[in-house]
Amino acid sequence: MVEDRPLTSILTHFVLILGVIAIALPIWITFVAATHDELRMNQVPLPLWPGTHLLDNLTQTLFGAGLSGSQGAPVWLMLLNSLAMAMMISFGKIAISLLSAFAIVYFRFPFRMTCFWMIFITLMLPVEVRILPTFEVVANLGMLNSYWGLSIPLIASATATFMFRQVFLTVPDEMLESARIDGAGPMRFFFDILLPLSRTNIAALFVILFIFGWTQSFWPLLITTDTSMTTIVMSIKQMLEAAEQSPQWNIIMTTALLARIPPIFVVISMQKLFVQGLTETDK
Amino acid sequence: MAEIKLTDLTKSYGSTEVLHHVEGDINDGEFIVIVGPSGCGKSTLLRMVAGLETVTSGEIRIGDRRVNELEPSARDIAMVFQNYALYPHMSVRENMAYGLKIRKLSKAEINKRVEEAAEILEIGQYLDRKPRQLSGGQRQRVAMGRAIVRDPQVFLFDEPLSNLDAKLRVQMRLEIRKLQQRLGVTSIYVTHDQVEAMTLGDRLMVLNGGYVEQFGTPIELYDRPASVFVAGFLGSPAMNFIPAIVEADGVGFARRHKTGRRTGASG
Description:
The complex is a heterodimer of chains A (283) and B (267).
Chain A: H1 6-33, H2 38-41, H3 54-63, H4 75-106, H5 112-121, H6 131-140, H7 147-155, H8 158-170, H9 173-181, H10 186-197, H11 199-214, H12 218-223, H13 232-242, H14 249-279
Helix pairs in contact in A: 1-14, 3-14, 4-7, 4-8, 4-11, 11-14, 13-14
Chain B: E1 4-13, E2 16-26, E3 31-35, H1 42-50, E4 57-62, E5 65-66, E6 77-80, H2 92-102, H3 107-121, H4 136-149, E7 154-158, H5 166-183, E8 186-191, H6 194-200, E9 203-208, E10 211-216, H7 218-223, H8 228-233, E11 245-247, E12 250-252, E13 255-256, E14 262-263
Parallel strand pairs in B: 3-8, 3-9, 6-7, 7-8
Antiparallel strand pairs in B: 1-2, 1-4, 4-5, 9-10, 11-12, 13-14
Helix pairs in contact in B: 2-3, 2-4, 3-4
């Protein structure tokens, strides 16, 4: 604030607090619901203060069969599946994008720009648009119900390639020339100079991609039929539908709470690099 | 230590020729300054010697080797860039050691060379800092240190002082000259600053529009410029020009009227 008047600061704080409540309240309710037993959750009014059943709910959700009466996989396995998928998607995307951007920026080969534009055009074809052909390819390759099937179709990424291209373009030419005089070959230059220079961008992209991968629900729903391959995000949806009796809110909310932890952990641990990656211009 | 021989050197980008038949012999241990206005091709020439630009035709020899086809790292040269081109994520020590590490020198040898260079340049206390924690002058020294540790046959400088303030520039100019004399390494130095050129070089190569206008010692160039361009480019304040006509009986300082009648004295 340039001006410092009591009234404006009260007003701005009021708006800020309102915003915090709007964001935090649903999370709070999720947490509260995860601490009550099933019976309490089906009574009106809904509780607003935590109960005493958090541990029971956690053990039942994590290691029990989840919903009583359903055939679902235990939630720890779903968490593991989600983690594997999100990690494979983010690492795969980063690796492939780095390499393709490296090729496009630093190598002169026939149809270089054609390649770039072809990659760029895939932006217009996300998985949702090409479901049938992608599904067929994955099915023909025998990758249904596997981590590969879950992650590979989501790995090819134009956005990340484009982003790394822009990052590499900001690296001064002298850096490359200097490395050449120092005797560094292309891969050496890539690993010793380019990778460390795009460290913050990689971190920022990792956060975005991890959350992108973690929150995938549509593609996993298509590609997995085996309950042992269920990811946590799709399981929440299934839990709501599976219940023929009234929904077991305490379990569902505990699952939702658990599903939230890894992305939050990733964001918090990468926060500093993430902000640097998006704002830093000094190369 | 080596002499450099440029023979009929030409550079074209597509159909545009930017350097025309450059010739020049540089003796062992000599400090050569290539000087000329922006866009005259002086940096291109330097980069061709460095191996960063391809040679369209002609030959570059360093020592007794033809280096046209050699990679920059195989030419045994070191280059100091205008913006220093230090690796921002490496400390000063790592920056200086990087080339040596790639050449697989032993750790002890690398350390010895880095320490030596740091001592010569008085940057010993900055060895563990990152480039961004250094001032312009200090970065400049690190860039030179990176060149020195390689112990090359040729130093190449691409306007290394143009990012420094005026006072520091004068000081660094002196230091570069002293350093070069002390190490006795053949050097090529590119600049557009004629004062820098006149004070630094053993010999100057004046380039204009891709042609070598003159190649000689500063005094030669100053006293006996080979062309109007050289005469006008060097010296401060600039040389005065008076239009004149060469006639059978000598040179006439004359202005011709439209009628063709001459006025003024003839001499």
